[in-house]
Amino acid sequence: MQWSDDVGPTTRIATVVNALQPSERRVVQLILDDTEGVVEITAQELADRVGVARSTVVRSCQSLGYRGYPQLRVALTRELARSSVRASTAAGDDAHGPSALGRIRSDLDALAVALPRVASVLTEAEVEDAVTRVVGARRLVIVASGLSSPLALDLSMRLTAVGRPAEHVADPSASRSPSAGWPRTTRCW
């Protein structure tokens, strides 16, 4: 996966954690659990704490898009510095007051701070490809189940509301059966 320099280590971890080997997952879990401590130790010390080989730590870093552990430590330090600035900004949000409107304003401020992090995992090419596929599709089918189902329903309703009709299939089993007969111009997410 190609990463933009704007994508911080914790965002990268969240993006790839399910694709990592179990030993690499243990490494990144310790990084998440003790980020401040990890920036102060060597790759060997991290390996010893997790109970893996140093090469596993290096492989974990490479799975996150870094050349090695030193680059990960620099990125973690940068992310910690940014998050401390965000925390101090959020702490000042009490100026909005304890009212419902004040809390809404505080939540919107926090969202405004978080949005660049969310957008940082997107690349121009991926967004253009997704838009091209949506625009070029004759049929859009949004498939989800469990906790993702309300999000899929929301997406299909929003697409329909802006003039791009989309179907929502809440049951993944039901979506598999007719998909074999769908034309190539059908897009399924």
Automatic annotation (TrEMBL):
SUPFAM superfamilies: Homeodomain-like (SSF46689), SIS domain (SSF53697). Residues 7-83 form the HTH rpiR-type domain. One of its GO terms (molecular function) is DNA-binding transcription factor activity. It holds the Pfam family HTH_6. Keywords: DNA-binding. One of its GO terms (biological process) is carbohydrate derivative metabolic process. The keyword DNA-binding applies. Residues 168-189 are annotated as: Disordered. InterPro entries: Homeodomain-like_sf (IPR009057), HTH_RpiR (IPR000281), RpiR-like (IPR047640), SIS_dom_sf (IPR046348), WH-like_DNA-bd_sf (IPR036388). This is Putative DNA-binding transcriptional regulator. It comes from Clavibacter michiganensis subsp. michiganensis.
